[in-house]
Amino acid sequence: MHKKIWVIAASVLVVSACGKKEAAAPAAAPVPAPVVAIAEEKILNIYNWPDYITQDMVANFEKESGIKVNYQTFENNEALQAKLVAGNTGYDLVVPGSVFAKSQIDAGLLAKLDKSKIPNLSKLDADIMAKLSNVDAANDYLVPWAWSYTTVGINKAKVAKALGNTPLPENAWDLVFNPTYTAKLKSCGIVYLDSVTEILPPAMHYLGKNAYSNEPADHKAAGDMLAKVRPHIRVFSSTQIDDLASGKVCVALGWAGDMNQAKARALENKSGVEVQVLLPKTGGLIFFDTLAIPKDAKHPGNAHAFIDYYLRAEVSASLTNELSYVTANKASVALVKPEMANDKTVFLDADALKTMVPPASFGNAARESMSNVFSAFKKGG
Ligand code: SPD
Questions:
Q1: Is pLDDT above 90 for 381?
Q2: Residue 169 and residue 281 share a domain
Q3: Mode of pairing for the β-strands spanning 275-278 and 143-155
Q4: What is the pLDDT of residues 61-88, one digit of tens each?
Q5: Which of 24, 47, 77, 355 is the most exposed place for a label (fewest CB within 10 A)?
Q6: How far is the CA of 28 from the centre of ligand 1 (A)?
Q7: CA distance 10 to 183
Q8: Protein residue with its CA nearest to atom 1 in ligand 1
Q9: Best substitution site from 49, 240, 356 to test ligand 1's pocket, by max atoms within 8 Å of Cβ?
Q10: Domain count for the chain
Q11: Does the beta carbon of 255 lie inside 6 Å of ligand 1?
Q12: Cβ 288 under 6 angstroms from ligand 1
């Protein structure tokens, strides 16, 4: 029996074991409890990342609850942070990365959840919730949305052609951080995520430093290294799915979930592009995104109703099945399609998990120091 691990053990996040048997014979879906919203205007304003919700999720919620959802997207944690700090966001539900969420809780930007309105919290994996308490001590503010990891993805054929006689490096991070490789790959296109807190951590990790270092000297070292590859980076984008699927770029420093969506899209489009998600020898960086209600949300009742709806096993499972992102919903595991459950770039196995860097948070001063380094890096092109 092929044992899958959905536990990010020890110091990392947690996913529990599930067997082929479970995946092949999904339990009959229980009849869901109806969406219950308290009396307030029937509107819900959601602010989420792009390509991070299934087509049906909003439509089904609207149909069942009568609540109209206004859905907008942001491309990086910095954009969401700026809105929350400015206040009066107009949003009722947002999706911060755990890397930012601690400082948002500490700054009083998020509202405490009314857990009595979210009965489906019981479906969440207790081990993951325990890990999340590093950020949200009593699990009072955040509900896990999904997790994946930052890594390197490639267009196999284009990378092979651009590298010529040079084989793929043992450590996939070389493809985006080592000028010997990036100089060769420049011609077919390298894309980086467009966010300081997405690029500096893997760069510091590549240098053998703490990926979440708060030390300005470490940020500078990462900046010095990045300056050497800057001329080889074609584009900065946090919506990389089409770029990879269409063959517009051949290497991406991005999120595994999006890369797997690019892989599926290329297959669907029969474009002939084969996207491969690489697991760097020294590990990718795990990230965890969470649902939270801004302090000044006008429709917190509807936000609670959506959170409870999302935590239904079949709704959480649809996110994994359609978007290749793993959730913390234990009850959804049995509903994950076998081809997804068996994909080791989605559900990491024990060996891969051992290499992965667990998420952590940055202080405000570190974010400022990193931001200066990143701006100089981007301009340096
Ligand atoms: N398609 C969007 C996926 C959102 C990923 N959030 C990443 C946060 C990483 N720090």
A1: no
A2: yes
A3: antiparallel
A4: 999 999 999 999 999 999 999 999 999 9
A5: 24
A6: 31
A7: 38
A8: 51
A9: 49
A10: 2
A11: yes
A12: no
The answer to whether residue 304 sits within a structural domain is: yes
Q: Are residues 195 and 278 in the same domain?
A: yes
CATH number for 144: 3.40.190.10
Same domain, 266 and 160: yes
Q: Is residue 261 part of a domain?
A: yes
Note whether 65 and 134 are same-domain residues.
yes
CA distances from 101 to 46, 74, 144, 302, 366 (A): 17, 15, 11, 21, 15
In a domain, 13, yes or no: no
pLDDT, tens digit (0-9, with 9 covering 90-100), for 332-355: 999 999 999 999 999 999 999 999
Same domain for 131 and 59: yes
In this structure, which residue's CA is closest to atom 8 in ligand 1? Answer: 97
Cα(350) to centroid(ligand 1), Å: 23
Identify the sign of the CA torsion 47, 51, 53, 56: positive
Percent of the residues in the chain that have a pLDDT greater than 70, as a whole number: 90
For residue 288, report the distance from its CA to the centre of ligand 1, in Å. Answer: 8
Asked if residue 51 has its Cβ within 6 Å of ligand 1, the reply is: yes
The verdict on residue 22 lying in a domain is no
Q: Is 37 in the pocket of ligand 1 (CB under 6 A)?
A: no
Residue 65 C-alpha to ligand 1 middle, in angstroms?
Answer: 28
> 230 and 369 share a domain?
yes
Ligand 1 contact via 97 beta carbon (within 6 Å): yes
**Judgement on whether residues 230 and 350 belong to the same structural domain of the protein:** no
- Tell me the residue range of the domain where 162 lies: 149-286+362-379
Expressed in angstroms and rounded, the spacing between residue 289 Cα and the centre of ligand 1 is 7
Helix axes 196-206, 77-86, angle to 10 degrees: 130
Q: Are residues 89 and 195 in the same domain?
A: no
Task: Count CB-CB contacts under 10 A for residue 4.
Answer: 25
Q: What is the largest CA-CA distance in the chain?
A: 66
CA distance 343 to 336: 11
